[in-house]
Amino acid sequence: MPQTIDPTQQFRLDGKVALVTGGSRGLGKEMVLAFARAGADVVIASRKVESCAALAKQVESETGRRALAAGAHVGKWDDCDALAKQALDHFGRVDVLVNNAGMSPTYPSLIAVTEALYDKVMDVNLKGTFRLSALLGTAMFEGDGGSIINVSSIAASQPTPGEVPYAAAKSGVHSITKSFARAFAPKVRVNCIMPGAFLTDISKAWPEAMHQAMARMIPLARGGQPDEVVGAALYLASSASSYTTGSIIKIDGGAAYGMG
Q1: Which tens digits make up the pLDDT trace of 2-53?
Q2: Which residues are CB-contacts of 123 (< 8 A; sequence separation ≥ 6)?
Q3: Number of other CB atoms surrounding residue 61 within 10 Å
Q4: Rounded to an integer, what distance in angstroms lies between the CA atom of residue 189 and that of residue 94?
Q5: Model-wide pTM > 0.90
Q6: Is residue 95 a part of any domain in this protein?
Q7: Residue 186: CATH number of its domain
Q8: Which domain holds residue 60?
Q9: Which of 4, 76, 142, 241 is spaced 20 to 30 A from 206 at the CA atom?
Q10: How many structural domains compose the chain?
């Protein structure tokens, strides 16, 4: 009889090391937990190292995988350099990089957008993604290969007036995804997850009117639960996506029509 192959084994990450920025909460936290449960050791990075340490303790107790908590502001070039070095020195390799850290502060009008706000949004959402991808993508290319997963937003495809700098930065993330996929081919795959509205801890501050609008305007009639990012993240991190690079995967309940 032919040998039976379990297709779910393609999604395993045993022996791999995954680094997730913005990894202590929201979508980042869900990806950290999923990667560890799939067998990976993890680097959890964010500006609040205490939150990273708490999640690292949870990872180690629940999964038995090793977890490194790393404080880093990815909007700062030197912090990106230090984070990459810390991860490589600690584990000896990084096989999966998730550029998840992001921010989208509100503003009363376009003319009220300050240079400081504009620069901060660009730095966190775009500059950090570029620098960490360049550093760890090069290390992957010179080693055994790997996977880079960028996290953008449907704002990159269908921007609104209330998120212009953020949308521009996330559109840049799409460009970086496609160009880095070619730069590091064939050893490193570079892809992007484009989320819509997810009900993370940040959504608790959303007004009820926004939830009602989502029910009317999103085809699936709701925002996403944080763990609903896991399927795409595991797919892109693992060998299940071995022939996928330069792609942008939309996870938004059908909210956006475009794909970047």
Answers
A1: 667 778 889 999 999 999 999 999 999 999 999 999 999 999 999 999 999 9
A2: 75, 76
A3: 9
A4: 13
A5: yes
A6: yes
A7: 3.40.50.720
A8: 7-245
A9: 76
A10: 1
